[in-house]
Amino acid sequence: MALPHLTESNGSIVVLSSLTGKVATPFTTSYSATKFALDGFFWSLRHELAMKNIPVSITLCILGLIDTQSAMEKIKDKISMPAYPAQDAALAVVSAGASRVWEMYYPWYVRPICFIRDWFPQSRDWMIQKSYQQASDEKQSVPK
């Protein structure tokens, strides 16, 4: 494992995750499960490293919808929210890793959604379902 090298160099681990690893969304069951697993694994590892005074930084990057070909293909006609530029997301990831922050949220709307996840669960679920319903409604209303 890379841990001895990371320990010697006071290294960093930067983890790319997703909003769907913090807040469950429709049509993302398998993907969401893997991202929730990342969250749990790396938070547990962070505790273990801290308890052993191992100076390795772990940054979880919680990303929303990013404009990449694979993401756009998977969500096509399913969601009505803007995708944010991949280059801006990459810059935010690099900056967060260099700053050794515990969590980074990109774009702007990801942090508030994570906040309301626990405090206002019905509002959270309504917003999520509404964003998917709008995309579904728009698809159905397109003349053929």
UniProtKB/TrEMBL annotation:
**Do the record's keywords include Secreted?**
yes
Cell compartment(s), UniProt: Secreted
> What superkingdom heads the lineage?
Eukaryota
- List GO molecular-function terms, semicolon-separated: oxidoreductase activity
Q: Which UniProt keywords apply?
A: NADP, Oxidoreductase, Secreted, Signal
Biological function: Unidirectional NADP(+)-dependent cortisol dehydrogenase (in vitro).
Question: What PANTHER family does its record include?
Answer: HYDROXYSTEROID (11-BETA) DEHYDROGENASE 1-LIKE B-RELATED, HYDROXYSTEROID 11-BETA-DEHYDROGENASE 1-LIKE PROTEIN
Family assignment from sequence similarity: Belongs to the short-chain dehydrogenases/reductases (SDR) family.
Q: What is this protein called?
A: Hydroxysteroid 11-beta-dehydrogenase 1-like protein
